[in-house]
Amino acid sequence: xxxxxxxxxxxxxxxxxxxxxxxxxxxxxxxxxxxxxxxxxxxxxxxxxxxxxxxxxxxxxxxxxxxxxxxxxxxxxxxxxxxxxxxxxxxxxxxxxxxxxxxxxxxxxxxxxxxxxxxxxxxxxxxxxxxxxxxxxxxxxxxxxxxxxxxxxxxxxxxxxxxxxxxxxxxxxxxxxxxxxxxxxxxxxxxxxxxxxxxxxxxxxxxxxxxxxxxxxxxxxxxxxxxxxxxxxxxxxxxxxxxxxxxxxxxxxxxxxxxxxxxxxxxxxxxxxxxxxxxxxxxxxxxxxxxxxxxxxxxxxxxxxxxxxxxxxxxxxxxxxxxxxxxxxxxxxxxxxxxxxxxxxxxxxxxxxxxxxxxxxxxxxxxxxxxxxxxxxxxxxxxxxxxxxxxxxxxxxxxxxxxxxxxxxxxxxxxxxxxxxxxxxxxxxxxxxxxx
Length: 436
Known about the structure:
Involved in protein export. Acts as a chaperone by maintaining the newly synthesized protein in an open conformation. Functions as a peptidyl-prolyl cis-trans isomerase. It is an enzyme of class 5 (isomerase). Keywords: Cell cycle, Cell division, Chaperone, Cytoplasm, Isomerase, Rotamase. There is one protein chain. By secondary structure, this protein is an alpha+beta fold. Helix content is 46%, strand content 23%. It contains twelve helices and eleven strands. Strand 1 and strand 2 form a beta hairpin. Helix 1 crosses helix 2 and helix 6 crosses helix 11.
């Protein structure tokens, strides 16, 4: 088998392969036998079709199947022979395909980039530190109570945090505009879910009152035809509702899956959850800075085949997330929606793998166990979770991958410019929840 490789552009390669005619003809004969086996043809007994007749009837199809198989087989043999780091599947093009002649074909494909990592000392990381304070805990308890509040109608004036049930209609230059009206709409004052001034304009209103609000749409409003426009809203307040917060008792504790006899015991469990959330957010914040630093320091080409694969994964995830997996073909979603995210994911994966290979990193057992323990602690029976991972190698391998990522981050931090920055629980959690 003769092999030559040409670099066309970037990561794209074209491999030219020559295969002896005898090897090809042997495959054609094998495919021909498969095609005629058991077939019934007038004038011949099943399986007794003369070779000349068989070749005349099925020779073209047999050669097509044989050539495709031969190209696949020869290509992957050549990949091993030439030690090619293949990224994605190739496309084949026969250039010489004639009976009695050596087969020659071209395979076009991409390879993984050769990565020479830049020094980690060029990366700067602000490593945040924070703790869960008593004030954070009290605020969380208040939030949990508000999330489980019962709304009761009130004759009092609406204030920040209250809910109003309203009918409204919006007008621009005296003409009602599309999407500017609703009936029986429940609005929590202070939620900032309406344009600036709308909620503030209803503060102090009572049930049965009518209000006229003269407002302006923001210049960056999501609807182009309303950007910066002044509008008048006629609002009828049907009801004002005040939040009735639940008592901090055993029934309330159980609604969060916590068996606690008193408030102090409940606080202990909530604080544990907050500390776990904070630790995870601090790790992720540091990791994101490390990843951003690696990307900035290392300029590498990304195989388009890997990007396409990642786009397909993101498409499927999007459809599944919105519950449309049974009704919608993910391929109908435009690739452009996911391209930037896919490219970044592939780039991160390539850089992470380069660091793992360069430092011969293996998943540290203590890190794997710590990550499993972190999950186990959130369940009523932690041992059941430990046993699950112990008996499911595939699930455990996902945890091992996360442990490896942590080890990569530690390797970078050891050489990077790291500064410690004091922060708060609220700041860290807010930052961690912002889109990357």
